[in-house]
Amino acid sequence: MNDNDGQVSRVHPVLVWLNLSLLVLFPVAWAAPLMRAGLLPLFKLKEISILSGVQSLWGTDVFLALVVTVFALVAPMAKTVGLALLHWNLLRPRLAPVLRVLGKLAMADIFLIAIYITVAKGVGVGRLEVAWGLYLFTACILVSFWVSIQTERNQRHAPD
Fold first, then answer.
1. Model pTM?
2. How confident is the model over 41-96, as pLDDT tens digits?
3. Which of 146, 148, 149, 68 is closest to 109 using CA atoms?
4. Other residues' Cβ atoms within 10 Å of the Cβ of residue 37
5. Which of 14, 31, 77, 148 is most buried (CB neighbours < 10 A)?
6. CA neighbours closer than 13 Å in the CB half-sphere of residue 13
């Protein structure tokens, strides 16, 4: 396709649509319950989401809240938007290394560790149940990783 007609070029349409779906799915995953935590089996479990975890961190540890906000919220969304711009030829391919760095900053494990710290501080001894949001968030991270790899592969093998 022509690079100037506003259409996607050098990228399979499935990659484009998967990436665009992340613009909706990431915010859903952030609000979805990751886990349910409770003190004793008899008491109601409290649902913990990414957003509620970050909100809780802002009240207890501002630095950790900033780190989690950047790595779990800002970096993945910036990378997704950057890939969309690259797919639609609105970002130069030579800026792809910046997206690679954003992908490395978007470390879900830092967020999950912070959530476990929050749970451990707030709940103490108790019970944890995994909720559907953890699976959705994990799927979003894995899809984002796969789209990045495939986009980079397409960019390397594309004729100039």
1. 0.78
2. 555 778 888 899 889 889 889 998 898 888 888 988 999 999 999 999 998 888 88
3. 68
4. 20
5. 148
6. 2
